[in-house]
Structures are given as structure tokens and as C-alpha cells.
Amino acid sequence: MNTTKALKPTDSELEILRVLWDKGEATVREVHEELAATKDCGYTTTLKLMQIMFEKGLVIRDDSSRTHIYQANVSREKTQQQLVNKMVDTLFSGSRSQLVMQALGSHTPSKEELNEIQQLLDSLKK
């Protein structure tokens, strides 16, 4: 596994990673078809991005057969944590409470979301 802790995926790379996280593994064609369902993108663009992601260490690929199979080489959780930490540091001057207040103030959370948040807060207080 390549060292990926300092890598910050681009928006396009995050879209590809989301597909790979959801599917577990996929060919370029499968990733492209998933992306093309919601946005205008070319197959060669998807292929090139996935090749770059392989070079950067964001994905791994099995090239033992003619069709390469790709998998994410970074976890969803670690990537989310990295991006949230960067956002907290740059947009909220390190204040996690400001981030939470902004997130909760921008839309009305459902009862289920509020229950999950309350459970997290309760566990952090222990």
C-alpha cells in the first residue's frame, strides 16, 4: 500500500472513490457508467483520472486479466476525517463547535439524525 495520508483527492477523484467504496471493486467501464448516470463525462476522462489515481496511490488495480479491476486504496472514513479536519482548520479556525452549529443551522435535522447526534454527544461525555 502506498503512503496516502497526505493525499487530498480532487472533487472528480472523490466521485470515483465514492463509486469504488460503494461497489468494493469495479472496472473503468463500471465506474464510468455510474458517473454518467448523473453527469456528463467521457469514458477516456474517467480512464485517465483512474490512471492518475493509481499513480498517486488512491486506488489499486488488478491487472492480471485484460480488464483491470480497481479498488479504493484509501478508506472512506479516513478520507472524510482528513477533509473535515482541513475544513475545520481553514474555514472555522479550528473550532469544531462552529462547524457543528453551521451544519445544524443550515438545515433542519430529522429526529433520527438528532438521536444519532445525541448518542454521540452522550458517548463523548463519558
Automatic annotation (TrEMBL):
Q: Tell me the lineage of the source organism.
A: Bacteria, Pseudomonadati, Bacteroidota, Chitinophagia, Chitinophagales
Q: Which InterPro entries match?
A: BlaI_family, WH-like_DNA-bd_sf, WH_DNA-bd_sf
- Which family does the record claim for this protein? Belongs to the BlaI transcriptional regulatory family.
Q: What is this protein called?
A: Predicted transcriptional regulator
One Pfam family this sequence matches = Penicillinase_R
The answer to whether UniProt assigns keyword Nucleus to this entry is: no
| Biological process, per Gene Ontology | negative regulation of DNA-templated transcription
Listed A to Z, the keywords are: DNA-binding, Transcription, Transcription regulation
Superkingdom of source: Bacteria
The Swiss-Prot or TrEMBL record annotates one GO molecular function as: DNA binding
